[in-house]
Amino acid sequence: MLTNYLKVAFRNITKHKLFSVINILGLTIGIAGTLFIVMYIQDELSYDRFNEKGDRIYRVNLHGKIAGQEVHTTSTAYPLYKALVEEIPEIEQATRVNDMREWIFRYEEKAFKEDKVMAVDSNFFNFFSYELVKGNPDKALQDPNSIVISELLAEKYFGDENPLDKTMAIGNDKSSYKVTGVFAEVPGNSHLKFNALLSSSSFPWMNRDQWLSNSLWTYYMINKTGNPAEVDHKMDAMIETHVSPTFVEFMGKSLAEFRNEGGIYRYWSIPLYDIHLKSSLRDEPEPPGSMSYIWIMTVIGIFIMVIACINFMNLTTAKSAGRAKEVGLRKTLGSLRTTLIGQFLTESVAYTLIGAVLAMGVVYALMPLFNEISGKELQASQLLNINLLGILFAVIIFVGLLAGSYPALYLTSFKITEVLKGKLRAGMKSGGVRSFLVTFQFWISIVLIICTAIVYQQLKYVQNQNLGFDKDHILLINDASRLDKNQVAFKNELRANTNIAGVSYSNNTVPGVNNTTIFRGEGDAADHMMSTYYADYDHLKALDLKLVEGRFFSRDFPSDSNAVVINEAAVREMGWQDPLSEKIIDFNGDSAVSRAVIGVVKDYNYESLKFNVRPLVLHFTNTGNVLYVRIAGDDPGRMVADITNAWDKYMTGDPLSYSFLDEDYDALFRSEQRLGKVFTVFTVLAIFIACLGLFGLAAFMAEQRTKEIGIRKVLGASVWSITSLMSAEFTKLVLIAFVLAIYPAYYVMDSWLEGFANKVEISYWIFALGGLSALLISWLTVSYQSLKAAKVDPVRSLKYE
Amino acid sequence: MSMIQIKNLQKVYTTDEVETTALNSINIEIKEGEFVAIMGPSGCGKSTLLNILGLLDNPSDGEYHFGEHEVSNYSERQRAQLRKGSIGFVFQSFNLIDELTVFENVELPLLYLKVPSAERKQRVEEVLERMNIMHRRNHFPQQLSGGQQQRVAIARAIVAKPSVILADEPTGNLDSANGEEVMKLLAELNEEGTTIIMVTHSPYDANYAHRIINLFDGKVVTENIKEQFHI
Ligand SMILES: Nc1ncnc2c1ncn2[C@@H]1O[C@H](COP(=O)(O)OP(=O)(O)OP(=O)(O)O)[C@@H](O)[C@H]1O
Ligand SMILES: [Mg+2]
């Protein structure tokens, strides 16, 4: 009997080609979209799960409240890992990872700057499950000056040679490191991503017994019976024994006093598996994912599937007049309704199966494109992953049953005695349900259009918001200290170039600030947490900052090298009326120093537009590791060449590396931009599938009304009046969908915007835009069929009946 | 032995507050092996009666004995079960499934009866041979003439060897030559022992029956011998 069902199904597919193509295409796109979303989510959820003992691994985070400011960071102290193993019995091992960022690597005549370099403890490869393809995992990171590199780097520097035991010169001082291992590329779903690992024993300062300086990541592994809450508890005690003694020295008060004033200083653990999706503290190794985006993706995936299912339902029921006779006959021959329902469900599952197979092909073909849009590294081979196939199977069954459910119930509800009269205009009867379903499809589409538009508006808004300085045309050289004693000469050479408007050394790379610490006003006992960095005389000019009061560091005032410039937020933080008459106490050096405030700069956003500008104290330096170059000419390409030439004069064979500040700022919004793109892609998909369905329905309506149209034309109706008659029905549905879409779209976007410090006003025209574009798209879709029907020669169309 | 016996049968259609009494106090008995024609003006309830006799529909009131079963209150499932093996249908509009070939259409009742494949093939070929359309076995209904389509429909009605065949204006859509051929086939089947109940407007076709039941406005007016017609 199954073959009989499939035979009928297949012959129906080939008989009604347009409808079958629309049905299958809709299902294919829908399933392909869903597959992408499933793979995306799977990847997000699989972060760090490749670690064999990952379920017992935790990372230690620090929660502090200092001078009224909350600090949540992933950075921990150097000696913590040792104390964890020695003092907490259930901890089996602990390991540290210190982000060293970018270094220059040299081998023979090859020299490149490599990023994602990390210093790690010798048990790293035992602790995590990263794959070492060459070298001994137990020993590779033991000795000082050992380096383990990725396969890609091995290929890049050593080609076909065996990299093991080769010596590379690393860093500005060209220290020698011996290659002791090569690891397979770090999986895309690892929260730690690195290109090279240096042994922590190479850096004696990593073994300092310094408990209050938090700068590296600490991970621990507990035994099978251990409890992380217990560990947190024991870490509290650890703070008493280790941190307490040094607290007075560094903070000017005892830990107890500090706590009495509302201060907090404690370590806590987060499971390794939760890091990617649930942790977004300061100094995360990479921008975290987000559970809410996963939910959004899930909802969009379901939406797309539902739209595809509705197409199937609508077209199948619309076409049901053709199947009514079959239903009646099968019933006459003794088939039960349940059997018939089974038949129609089999048929829709068969359709879905075809769609699924095609969808696999589509996903395979579009994988690189999707990776580019989403920033993932998904592999085509993951398509055959058993979990994914399982999910695909579930999707086929679910979609098949959902899409088939209404047609099956509807078609099999025909009474034999009615059907056999042969007069049943079944297509017309389900009009109410069909209208509802079409409205629902457009409701989804319009909600998605509005949401996408608002996401884009917000992104544009934050990115174009006034930073308080001009971020365009600024070139940033990130490791200028390589120039060593030539730093000043290099700067002077650039200053002499008429196409360069400003050159400034600093120790800080914006966007971002690497030091936020405690200051006091002279004659005031209150602590104030403020960010700080060092900059030279020309910082104001190079960044195009605006001065509100006083002056910037000036060559005319030698004493300025001991003074500070603060921003408006700092003035507010300190509560000063006349900041230029005040002094700031700075605890940064060996002893507290009092520094005169010589100027106030207008607030400029040195971190990210996601946050409001925080108080800032600028110290003076003559040189620094970071050089800002403002280009004035209109030929940035030539200027880069000029700068490179100047650099090469001092640093032959040591490549210049630079970035542009505006791009660095844009990069802060990469995950939001991705969301925007992903949103757009799936919105377009949803609308496209909905339009496919509409196109099919319109074709069906036109076919059904051939006779009516013929009569109207004979009576003198114009092509235009018939076309609008045909579009009127859909217009009504789209309008209803639009009205129903307004509030949900507003609600969702309003809550999304909550997460931004600076947010765009949701304006009414966005909604109008959503509604109008849906209307326009539906008109275009329907008009083709309507026009075709309206243009048919009435004499011919009347002959049909 | 009586094959079909109905007593005081009534059928009322209720649609939007309007009640139509399609059949009113009908009493009919049909014996095994009989050939009965049902006649009457349009709208008098012939098809309604045939649908009830064929267990496609339930009466509103009254008794209906089919063989030893009292079926007037049968559920859809029970009726389907009983219908499957024992009743064959022939319609005016043939009602073949367009997506199935001649062979597959005729095979359908056997599929519902779960007859094994080899036996199905043999039985379908037998009836196709008999209806003289074996050469068209792989054609689709749309590729056949009306007469051929009706022969396929008859083949399908008899392939399960039902004890009763119900035919609603089987010649209605056919020209006289094809109509005559169909009537001869029905008569032949009747001769072989199959009970046949046929609705028709044609006195000529009715002539093939042993007995004619005349309906008027939902009631049996005469249940008569065919001799009153002069053909
Ligand atoms: N589903 C229905 N709902 C309401 N009334 C119905 C229904 N089916 C039939 N009727 C009514 O019942 C009566 C009998 O109809 P039926 O189809 O049995 O007539 P008929 O004798 O077969 O006519 P014809 O010779 O034209 O086929 C008619 O008045 C018809 O309008
Ligand atoms: Mg009738």
Automatic annotation (TrEMBL), chain A:
Signal peptide: none annotated. Residues 20-203, 444-643 form the MacB-like periplasmic core domain. InterPro entries: ABC3_permease_C, MacB_PCD, Macrolide_Exporter_MacB. It is a multi-pass membrane protein. GO terms for molecular function: transmembrane transporter activity. Residues 299-413, 681-794 form the ABC3 transporter permease C-terminal domain. The chain crosses the membrane at residues 21-41, 293-315, 340-366, 386-411, 432-456, 678-702, 714-742, 762-782. One of its GO terms (cellular component) is plasma membrane. It is found in: Cell membrane. It comes from the Bacteria. Keywords: Cell membrane, Membrane, Transmembrane, Transmembrane helix. Its main location: membrane. This is ABC transporter permease.
